[in-house]
Amino acid sequence: MATLLHPDLSPRKPWLTGKVRDLYEVGEDHLLFVASDRISAFDHVLGSGVPDKGKVLTQISLFWFEHLRALVPNHLITAKVAEYPEDLRQYADQLEGRSMLVKRAKMFPVECVARGYLSGSGWKDYQETGTVCGISLPSGLRESEELPEPIFTPAAKNHSGHDENIGFDAVVAALGGETAEALRTLTLDIYRAASQHARTKGLLLADTKFEFGLIEDASGTPRITLADEVLTPDSSRYWPIDGYAPGGAQPSFDKQFVRDYLESIRWNKQEPAPSLPDDVVERTREKYLAAFHMLTDKSALDSPQGP
Description:
Helix content is 29%, strand content 25%. The chain is an alpha+beta fold. Helix 1 runs parallel beside helix 7 (278-296) and helix 6 (256-264) packs antiparallel against helix 7. 38% of the residues are buried.
């Protein structure tokens, strides 16, 4: 089964290469996002990829952009390769289903995290302090338990490693009170809308992170705009409703099989990163595809439909 690890759009060179995505400049105002099949764990890109992962991430994001369109503007122009600039269409075999042409945004230097359940770093924080990112919570909560109400727990972007959890006051200091309040409100509104949809599909959305930027609207007024990937298994923690039992970790639709394998071989989490055995790759692929099918009701990874 073929994987696309490193897109080659020569002579174009990536403007930015992330763990999973390569970004290309398309003129002054647009970017091309290409989601590869690379997979990372413990802040390292592994030696093998997961077939179709980039398509799953892209098409889940496209689903959510459309689903949330009435709630928040987004940066998508089109995901149809036939509508890309002419010089990009020759790369259709690499771009189809896994790329988006988007408006370039002035991005905020903050990961906007919403949590509805106590898990991950939030659970560790709560065990140590009784708070999550400085937000006091009731005593006696269990791991994976639903919070009394969703909370906004921002993080400072850190491209060299884990993002650093910060308090709301730090967002105010960096962006100003009005913008900080707007980002908090929008983050929690999107989380609630997404959680409601996920529940109808048999999924709990434990937590997720968003990225926002400023893009001028038709009148030239900068507006807060949803960008990057949205509510994918890489940026969100989804749990099946069936079998949900607070008091411990829950099965999820992400790369847990990968992390479990890497722990089992006692990898030191240093370069070079190992490759994965075929069975771990296939089980991880199945999890990503299951999330896609459940959230979108689509049976196959078709070519995406643009707006």
